[in-house]
Amino acid sequence: MATEQPTALDLPMVDPLPAPTRKYFDVCTDKLGMVPNVLQAYAFDIDKLNTFTAMYNDLMLGDSNLTKLEREMIAVVVSAVNRCFYCLTAHGAAVRDLSGDPVLGETLVMNYRVARLEPRVRAMLDFAVKLTEACETIEEKDREDLRAHGFSDRDIWDIASVAGFFNMTNRVASASDMRPNDDYHAQAR
Amino acid sequence: MATEQPTALDLPMVDPLPAPTRKYFDVCTDKLGMVPNVLQAYAFDIDKLNTFTAMYNDLMLGDSNLTKLEREMIAVVVSAVNRCFYCLTAHGAAVRDLSGDPVLGETLVMNYRVARLEPRVRAMLDFAVKLTEACETIEEKDREDLRAHGFSDRDIWDIASVAGFFNMTNRVASASDMRPNDDYHAQAR
Amino acid sequence: MATEQPTALDLPMVDPLPAPTRKYFDVCTDKLGMVPNVLQAYAFDIDKLNTFTAMYNDLMLGDSNLTKLEREMIAVVVSAVNRCFYCLTAHGAAVRDLSGDPVLGETLVMNYRVARLEPRVRAMLDFAVKLTEACETIEEKDREDLRAHGFSDRDIWDIASVAGFFNMTNRVASASDMRPNDDYHAQAR
Amino acid sequence: MATEQPTALDLPMVDPLPAPTRKYFDVCTDKLGMVPNVLQAYAFDIDKLNTFTAMYNDLMLGDSNLTKLEREMIAVVVSAVNRCFYCLTAHGAAVRDLSGDPVLGETLVMNYRVARLEPRVRAMLDFAVKLTEACETIEEKDREDLRAHGFSDRDIWDIASVAGFFNMTNRVASASDMRPNDDYHAQAR
Amino acid sequence: MATEQPTALDLPMVDPLPAPTRKYFDVCTDKLGMVPNVLQAYAFDIDKLNTFTAMYNDLMLGDSNLTKLEREMIAVVVSAVNRCFYCLTAHGAAVRDLSGDPVLGETLVMNYRVARLEPRVRAMLDFAVKLTEACETIEEKDREDLRAHGFSDRDIWDIASVAGFFNMTNRVASASDMRPNDDYHAQAR
Amino acid sequence: MATEQPTALDLPMVDPLPAPTRKYFDVCTDKLGMVPNVLQAYAFDIDKLNTFTAMYNDLMLGDSNLTKLEREMIAVVVSAVNRCFYCLTAHGAAVRDLSGDPVLGETLVMNYRVARLEPRVRAMLDFAVKLTEACETIEEKDREDLRAHGFSDRDIWDIASVAGFFNMTNRVASASDMRPNDDYHAQAR
User: Fold this and answer.
1) Residue D83 touches chain F, beta carbons under 8 Å
2) Which residues of F touch D113 (CB under 8 A)?
3) pTM, to two decimals
4) Which tens digits make up the pLDDT trace of A19-70?
5) Claim to verify: residue D33 and residue D117 sit in the same structural domain
6) Structural domains of chain E, count
7) In principle, which of D66, D177, E64, E137 could form an S-S bond with D8, CB 3.0–4.6 Å?
């Protein structure tokens, strides 16, 4: 576990961590080879850590018609609008890994408009980007465009929720200068 | 309880609601005179409702050096940037109510820069607005400005978390055309 | 009459006011229950007050195919783009009052795009907003869109004139920190 | 007098013009060598023409500590932000003429920031431009900056009123595709 | 040759100039009546001057289906977006001269959208402006629009190269406060 | 050499390439392991290729007080503003390679403001970004800021020229949908 602070804020982890948190962090280390810094950052307050991980796990890993890759693609294009170093690094790596296409991950970080995407995925990302840049301009026509690409109303909720979630985390990360674990950078290149 | 859908998405509430949800909604009705539409909107999926309310309650009602009014003020100025009808309505009412100052609530909805605020509160709202409009430009200097107004690192985390949270909910509300309960409009005028 | 200055500029009203101005202010008090602060602000120079009221009365109360409510709706959406506290307060109250629909007034202040409007009114407000945000991009196509909704060339002039007028007053109000009379806030809720 | 319409709107002049208007237009022809198209455009309705000219003449030709050239400079920098062809042409010519410095007129049309201006004038134009681009951000500090350059509160009102007025006329001109008289282009080069 | 520095940077011309440069400057004086200040500005380093003039001459004077006037029109609309005093002055004069239409030159400087242009030229300028304002949003559809107006792929390259070139020179000119020769202002009025 | 077209424009390379071009491409293959697609894209016209490479080589490889790494850093931050996939890919790789710091390259692509940079380098990049985003606002104060960090007037010219150059190439690349060689992506990770 990093001895460096994961953010510019002096908010040390609860010490000792409660047993369930310790166990959760051990699972992360086993599966990912690291405890993502965002979890270490939230661990100054176990309630906040738990509400964050509950929402994250529901949105990114729970039941949805959106594939895990699609949800990660939304995470990256939202974070690209907001130029969030933490989220672009962590979720750019996830796109490279889940897609098996390192260039796709890079393209979404740099400019998703030049990626070669099927129209359905492009429509999904356009909605996520519009929602990020100018949510006050979303109207029924935007929802109709998604429906025309085969998305259900539940899918629209999920797209909006994932896009919304990263608009939150991008800001928590930027406000606190959260730093991604260095290991992400070389992953799945 | 409204029979109208709270959003433009066809996502009916689980029926029947599980007992704990029913009880939670009854508490809302007792205390607020209504079940806020956002809760009804999320109630198509009880897990999503629960992760949302857990995070909301931790941020807006949990322990913090920020007063409840200060957190509601952040909610309003963030939602004003994003021009979110739902959140401006619901949290504008909360500011009017908690402050006992109806004009303050209106001013924050319209243009917080012309409100007569103490410098500490103004600095807090400036940070929330900058984080909303241009989070990629936040730097150590911005955190130093907050510290100079007496905010601790924990306070900065809380300001960022509340501002981030409303950047999420503004987008979920806009994407789904979420409608506030009509009762809010006349409250605390 | 307020003893407080209506703006941040030290420009006291002519004292004594000339008889016609006094009479005009008495009419305001009779009909509105107040002398709007904008009139008090201009009353440091009776010529300026008179040219302002002449133009205001011609545009907002004179002959036009646009109803008085429609003109007030334009006033509000323009002032919402410019986040003008004075004009949003005074003309938001007018929309609530003239429409008998308090929620409509609130919605136009917050985000007119989510208001339930007939297409003709929406086209009128879209034109006013585009003219406010990016007048350099108005082209014949924009005028054709209005004509297709049944507006005559005279109507287009009137829409443009009202939108233009509030782009002026929003700036005079912002530049001088003009404060609306408190009475507006609770009106027609 | 032009036989061409001065705008893209089919709003012919009252015919015959009332005697005072005819006389006013004759004065224009004598002094300027033309009837400015803006006056012809408004002449479909004599009341509107009269309220416009009354306000114009008060602001641009009436008593003020601002020189006529300074008022024209404000007109040009506001119109440059809004890229208004009519007002840049007519008032650009006025700046060239009143200043005796053709390059100054061109510079204000293109980018006032590169003009060699005394700090007092620059502060005045910066205020006018900020008021045009982002009036919602004007605060007491902006007024203090003007006062520090020797402007009185009355001067601030005048700067704001002229800047506001051209924010109105720029929009009426853009909305109607108003065309300046060709004669302006070659004047005072 | 001007004794004043052509920019705000203290970078005097190589002295004496090498013979080929001297000859090139003499040709300029013969043909244009001046040595454009941009050439004097680059002449502190003859290699830089030569790579600049080689690219300039290839793009603006070399073989292309675009006429010289069309290339100058692109130069002006790009420079208008960037508000570049040097390039608007020099290339505005070129448009006035090559077109024999002084008003056209003025219109492109002020707001090309109100110029009366054939659709093919308008499409070309729209592409150049979009490329200048938001190049990250250019997609195949934008190229298809140009092809639909009869432009070949080579023409698209040329439009992009000229637009790109002035996006470069606008920035070199702004960064160095480059001043156009005064003679341009009165030309071809 | 790629058989695929390097851009979306149908502009095949001159065939056969002239001997000097062939030799230049062979040098690229020897030193870089590839012929960068930008060179292949320009090779439909050897004069254009030569003026491009002459300027590129002068700016990026010629004499300057700026190190090659510093020039590549400018290339990346400019291209990040413009979200240019080609230039971010190629010059991001160059920063990773020249700095020996893969995270630095990633950070500049994503958000240079969070990179840990010495103040002199940060000032250089801030100038390049301001010049890219809003060149019309550059004034003497901006040049003074660079001088205060030890940059000479010649250095300012070089910073502006490199920033200007990538504002050009970003637009040529975006307009033509130029694709970087795939090899860049995995380099120096």
Assistant:
1) no
2) 136-137, 139
3) 0.98
4) 999 999 999 999 999 999 999 999 999 999 999 999 999 999 999 999 999 9
5) no
6) 2
7) D177
